[in-house]
Amino acid sequence: MTSRRLFCTSLAVLTTLGLLSATASHAEERFITVSSTTSTEQSGLFSHLLPIFEKTSGIKVRVVALGTGQALDLARRGDADVVFVHDKSAEEKFVAEGFGVKRQEVMYNDFIVAGPKSDPAKAAGKDILEGLRRIEAAQAPFVSRGDKSGTHAAELRYWKAANVDLDKAKGAWYRDTGSGMGPALNTAASMNAYILADRGTWLAFKNRGELGIVVEGDTRLFNQYGVILVNPAKHPHVKQADGQKFIDWVVSEAGQKSIADYKIGGEQLFFPNAAKP
Amino acid sequence: MPEFSESLLAAWYLLTDANARLIDVVLLSLRVSLTAAMIACLIGMPIGALLAVGRFPGRRALIVLFNGLMGLPPVVVGLLVYLLLSRAGPLGSFGLLFSPAAMVIAQAVLVTPIVAALTRQTIADSWLEFREQLRSLGASRTRAAATLLWDGRFSLSTAALAGFGRAIAEVGAVMIVGGNIDGVTRVMTTTIALETSKGDLPLALGLGLILITVVLAVNAAAYLLRQWAERRWG
Amino acid sequence: MSVPTKIPAAAATAWLHLEQLGLQAGSTCIIDAATLTLAAQRTVVLGPNGAGKSSLLRLIHGLLRPTGGQLIWPQQLTQAMVFQRPVMLRTTALENVIYGLRLQGHNAPECRQRAAAALDKVGLSAIAQRPARLLSGGEQQRVALARAWAREPALLILDEPTASLDPASAREVERIITEIANAGTRLLMTTHNLGQARRIAEEIVFIDHGRIVEQSAADLFFTLPQSNAAQCFLKEETP
User: Fold this and answer.
1) Which residue, of A63, A126, A186, C46, has the fewest CB within 10 Å?
2) What's the structural domain count of chain A?
């Protein structure tokens, strides 16, 4: 049966071709893998920043955007060359465990509390801790990321600082969503709930519904980003040279200026604050 | 619903504007899922045929297993393949994680049981019809399985399509093993997930409409092929 | 053109013994301890519906495994079987015949040549390249006969080969069966058509309720049936 042989052969050839094209399409490229947070990706910072770096260096940057906790775990397994996240204590632990070479500060943005414009909990103001206390007191719906991200970690720190014991205070008003910043904002918008968000994602977020900014401007809301090269001593395949080039560029004058240049609706999202070399 | 008309508009705009990046995303989706579906057919169809025709210990258990695996959650498959392909995993040295190849592997794993189970059903039906004739001609069970696979090639397109449809529509597995890297592993479903995260619902829905259109087009083509084949071969 | 094989040296040489052959499905007895010696070149099995004719043929062909007794073949006979409803693969008529030959292990050119010859003998050369499933019932049955015949069986088993055909097709199929028998192949068949049985059979085996009731030369059976059951059967079936 020749038609049969033809059929089977072409099926096998097609599969091989598909597999080859799937594998080989980017294999030639010089690239590094950066595990980062949803805030940097979804705020659009990376799509502004990376082309500039790629142009000057010829190195492509592949970004895997996750919560800070997951991003660090990914790097612990050796699946990234560089981490670019925002949870200082988790980052320091990562370096102390030997998974990272050195933590360098890059920039900060700030958190805001978004909530219903009618503000039923009367949480509006500059004081984050007072705002949270009022939300808890009013039992007003509050959406938490609950995903071990940097933002989640920050939220938990604020509750603690506000002397609200979440374990006891948790009730129907406190919604643990276990999702990224965007999905959590979607949930908050549809429930008309309060939420702690990073300003970048908030500004880029389009489905706000009745939500507006309730608390902002507290210095305690500043959110520091750090960048770390994954330790080649732990994971020998880490692209040390190219990864270091990326880090060097991000903290360089040119890199810092590019960060400052990124604006949404005329508003600057990230404020470079790397140590001068 | 203003959102719906807005997303129709967004879809239309995306299609007519047809920017290169969107085309890349659509093509990558097709390439990954078609390859995965073909691999699933190459593995799943012989398995399904042997399960339908064969007589060996453990056959019933395997049938139940494959039927059950049809409902395999994509995230679980993604996680398993991630752990395999991760640098710290057993296949880490190949450096496949966060590549289209990894997505192909994950989708093939996800879809193979579907293809196998549906193939088994189809072949079991034709085995009822052909059984005596094939045994009379002296065909071994393996040979009979091969013959029926070939004979049922057009009705089996349904199994292949079910596999492809599941592959191109899933997001959980490719998100984990592909990483949704812009320009490298970003496919239609992960783009939709991302745009939903960013709260750009019209754009997400518009992309969804494109995805549906693509899937419909593939199904229509397969349907026409099958119609033609039935008229041609009976 | 290769002519199907040899005429048995003596027609009376037994080619199959059934020893207490039984077939039981659950508690139902389908064939009840059949003991029988087949020696005629053209044997027709008759009996009322549900008597076990088809099962007997399938036991002999090896499609069913007996639950008791045994089949004794004095010499190895290559067999082929044609069923009431022809089963065609979704390919051309020619490829269907070739498929049967490939399974016998012939090489491709030989298969092609023998298949073409067999189709020629059943008068279907002109439609060899047509999709087999789109042929009429009669044509499909002739392809099935060609598929069986091409394998040059020493024994051809036919289970009601004309039962689902229109009269014209049935006649054509019967002509081909007779031709195959004339070329020396042993026939073992069942039919509902007594005229057909009369025209083809040398010997009749009559079964009723799974038991062999009578075995006699065809002339004798139709003129002077020995058993009551056969007498009733002939009376009912004869118009």
Assistant:
1) A126
2) 2
Sequence-separated (6 or more) residues with CB below 8 Å from residue C84: C159, C160, C161, C163, C164
Whether A152 and A82 map to the same domain: the answer is: no
Q: Are residues A233 and A216 in the same domain?
A: no
| A61 in Cβ contact with A31 (< 8 Å) | yes
Q: Quick check: is A152 in a domain?
A: yes
Classify residue A5: in a domain, yes or no. no
Q: Do A138 and A176 sit in the same domain of this protein?
A: yes
| A155 neighbors A220 (Cβ within 8 angstroms) | no
- What ipTM did this prediction achieve? 0.89
- Restricting to B residues 42-61, those with a Cβ less than 8 Å away from any Cβ of C are none
Residue with tokens 């597995």: B173
Taking CA–CA distances from C83, the nearest residue in chain B reads B133
pLDDT tens, B34-62?
999 999 999 999 999 999 999 999 999 99
Output the six-digit token pair for A167: 């374990």
Structural domain of A123: 110-221
Over residues B176-191, the mean pLDDT reads 93
pLDDT band at A19 (very low <50, low <70, confident <90, very high): confident
Same domain for A119 and A194, yes or no, is yes
Closest Cα in chain B to C99: B137
**Phi, psi angles (nearest 5°) of residue A114:** -100, 150
> Tell me, what's the pLDDT at A51?
95
Mean per-residue pLDDT pooled into runs of 10, chain C (239 residues)? 40 84 92 93 94 95 94 94 95 96 94 96 95 96 97 96 94 96 95 94 95 94 91 84
Q: Is A41 exposed, middle or buried (0-12, 13-18, 19+ CB in 10 A)?
A: buried
pLDDT band at B195 (very low <50, low <70, confident <90, very high): confident
**C92 in contact with B, Cβ within 8 Å:** no
Around Cβ A275, how many Cβ atoms within 10 Å? 8
Write the single-letter amino acid at B19. Answer: N
Whether residue A147 sits in one domain with residue A52: no
Decide: helix, strand or coil at residue A17. Answer: helix
| Nearest residue to A42 via CA among A63, A71, A61 | A63
pLDDT at A58: 94
Question: Which residues from chain C sit within 8 angstroms of residue B139, using beta carbons?
Answer: 103
> Which range of residues forms the domain containing residue B165?
2-233
CATH number (domain holding residue B169): 1.10.3720.10
The residue that leads in pLDDT, B185 or C238, is: B185
The verdict on A131 and A159 lying in the same domain is: yes
- The confidence score (pLDDT) of residue C9 equals 41
In a domain, A237, yes or no: yes
Q: Do B101 and A205 touch (CB under 8 A)?
A: no
Poorest-confidence range of A80-84, A261-265, B61-65?
A261-265
- Residue from A1, A8, A15 whose CB has the most chain B CBs within 10 Å, to mutate: A15
The reply to whether A105 and A116 lie within a common domain is no
- CATH number of A208's domain: 3.40.190.10
CB-defined contacts B:C, below 8 A: 42
Domain contains A10: no
Question: Does residue A204 carry a pLDDT above 70?
Answer: yes
Q: Same domain, yes or no, for A33 and A122? A: no
pLDDT, tens digit, 9 for 90 and up, residues B16-26: 666 777 888 99
Is B179 close to A14, i.e. CB distance below 8 A? Answer: no
Burial of C125 (0-12, 13-18, 19+ CB in 10 A): middle
pLDDT digits (tens, 9 = 90+) for A110-152: 999 999 999 999 999 999 999 999 999 999 999 999 988 889 9
The CB density around residue A237, as the number of other CB atoms within 10 Å, is 13
**Domain count of the fold of chain B:** 1
Q: Which of C190, C178, C195 minimizes the C-alpha distance to C234?
A: C195
Q: What is the pLDDT of residue B3?
A: 67
